[in-house]
Fold this protein.
Amino acid sequence: MQSKEEIQRKVAAVLVDALNVDEEEVTPEARLQADLGAESIDFLDIVFRLEREFGIKIPRGELFPESIFQGDPDFIKDGRVTPRGLAELKAKMPFADLSKFEKNPTLEGISDLFTVDAIVNYIENKLQAA
Amino acid sequence: MLLKDQVALVTGGSRGIGRAIVLALAREGARVAFVYKGAREAAEQLVAEVTKTGGSAVALQGDVAQADTASRIVEKVLSDWGRVDILVNNAGIIRDGLFVRVEQDDWDAVIDTNLGGVFQFCKALAMRMASQRSGRIINISSVAADFVNKGQCNYAASKGAVNSFTRALAVELAGRGVTVNAVAPGFIATDMSEAVRNKAGDLIQKMIPMKRLGQPEDVAAVIVFLASPAAAYVTGQVLTVDGGLSLGISGP
């Protein structure tokens, strides 16, 4: 089992490579999109690199759940995430910290949930389960 | 040499335009893997020709219309050479006939090769190129996509789709430094256009403002340009190489 520090270090290295950012920018709270400039294809690249780095398989939609983003009226209404959508997010992203997001669950806010720390937690859970 | 130490993969490489592309890329220093379907002898001769001039080429058999061909070929190239910098989707076929006589098989064969092959090889390499933050994808289209001929519904549809696909993929990969362009040749002196040329005779030459058929080398030179550093800022374009044919009817 790898230590949390080890996972953090490897995840940071993956993000430096995938997003072409400096190591100092990759803080635990850094948001992939808003802070590190990730675009849609970058998310795929991150998955691709994490799979290689940790020798794991990341099923589509597991790390970056896409279903919530498709404008499903059950989950998103008038640019806000509905209670059902919030429950869905929590279920799909147990590794993310939703406490701040819950207070103002806007559609744009979803991307802020993808932080460096969320990825580290995800990998940690994944390796534990393996 | 413009492409020193780069790795190129060319489909339909043993004959016609593809052959000229293989030679041109190798001449610029690229290591070239090319795919051929049936022309083994031509493929072997081409490898020998490249090797003789100090270049590096390898021939791999495969039908691009088959779903598993691209992944197999790409894996092989990656295991031998570690990367692919330039992908030229050149493999293409015609099954001409008036639409009412086109059978399902004629439709499928053309779409699966001309469009499906492009899809398969791009699929096998796009993520990797995006990941390495560099790459050139060049799809060989045809002026027949937009300037249509009778008897080419399937061919025109496949090439029109390649043009649209080229633009759509270019947008997705642009942020990663991967360019995606197409080249649309006019009448080029190859085996593929021979039947049409025989039927039409001198008429074709008269229709072309430059008054000559294109040579495979005319097209290959444009591929080299698109693969070279000079074309770094060009993406999502369909470059026509036809001696002016598509500009309109050329009078006396």
